[in-house]
Amino acid sequence: MPYDFLIVATGAGMRAEEVPGLAQHAHTIWTVEEMLQLRRALQQLLEDTRSRKHRQVLFLVPPNNKCSGPLYEIVFMLDSWLRKQGVREQVSITWSTYENSFIQAFGPRLHEVVGEEFDRRGITGYTQYVVEKVDREEVVYQNGKRLPYDLLISFPPYVAAKAFTGLPIDDRGFISTVLETRQVTGYPNIYAVGDTGDFPVKQAFLAFLQADAAAEHLAATILGTQPTLKFEPTSMCVMEQFDKATFAQVPLRLTGDPQRPIEVRPDANGTYRVGSSPLWRLGKKLLGVYLPWRFKAGNPFHAGAPWKGMELGLKVMSGILAD
Fold first, then answer.
1. Which of 87, 193, 228, 277 has its CA 20 to 30 A from that of 10?
2. What does each C-alpha distance from 316 to 238, 276, 290, 312 come to in angstroms?
């Protein structure tokens, strides 16, 4: 099929087999089917604890996971849910991640918030725990440590959902791009947006920003005008915890270091904002209504009066509930 311009947005996939034993023994959270399997496992966990059985739940973030945030949400929601069921004392919850700090890509403020939450909830957390293999009842780490589990929950290593070998790609199949425009390196009439591109953090909000930038640049190219915006990576998320939620707005920049490719922009100043409150749960719910409504109508995420209203609401809430 011929084209003048091409936009590639085929997303990412998981490669659990990259970690020996992970696919066989862990519950993962990438597909709807996997989430339903995890729900059944959590229901079984609840039944076991009501029979006065003690259970150990272990969370595992392996290397090459590109967005561990959803797993942090799950560990907090699990704690809140078990407390509501009155069985939290029957369950030991342990967190292990290869990262040097919790949610490493989003900087020290998120690390502090997560650490404080772990302490408050009685969750044992370990950083710099790089998995070596997963056995039936324990995880073995490269530092020689072993952690036991009855239920293991993990978010596997990322790879490109489709590797386009005719384009410049990295060792995981992600397409090399020009940061600001999302054009494929060396192919100015091809754009790669969202998880299919080589931006190190894979997140929906960042994908929306990339799509906006690519659409703006493509339209300007066709019309012979100058684009009015570019991709400036600022992550925004609301981390649900059931009893409250944590808001984070994180301006990011590339470092050029393959071992730590992304960091909080040093000049972020007041635009790097983090805060926790039960009121942020309302923001999460509103976003859950706004997104399907806009997409069902075929409208872009960041456009029009509805987005301006959402943006104003987030600005007011973050001014009061985050710093």
1. 228
2. 15, 15, 18, 6
- The size of the chain, in residues, is 323
Distance CA(300)–CA(219), nearest Å, equals 15
> Which residue from 146, 164, 153, 84 is spatially nearest to 121, judged by alpha carbons?
84
* 33 CB-contact burial (10 Å; exposed 0-12 / middle 13-18 / buried 19+): exposed
Q: In Å, how far are 32, 36, 216, 225 from 221, measured between CA atoms?
A: 39, 45, 9, 6
pTM over 0.70: yes
| CATH 3.90.650.10, applies to 20-156 | no
Could you report the per-residue pLDDT of 268-320, keeping only the tens digit for each? 888 999 999 999 998 788 888 888 888 888 877 777 787 788 778 777 777 78
Residue 15 structure tokens: 């490669």
CA distance 124 to 115: 9
The HSE-up count of residue 158 (CA atoms within 13 Å, CB side) is: 20
Q: Where in the chain is the domain with CATH 3.50.50.60?
A: 20-156
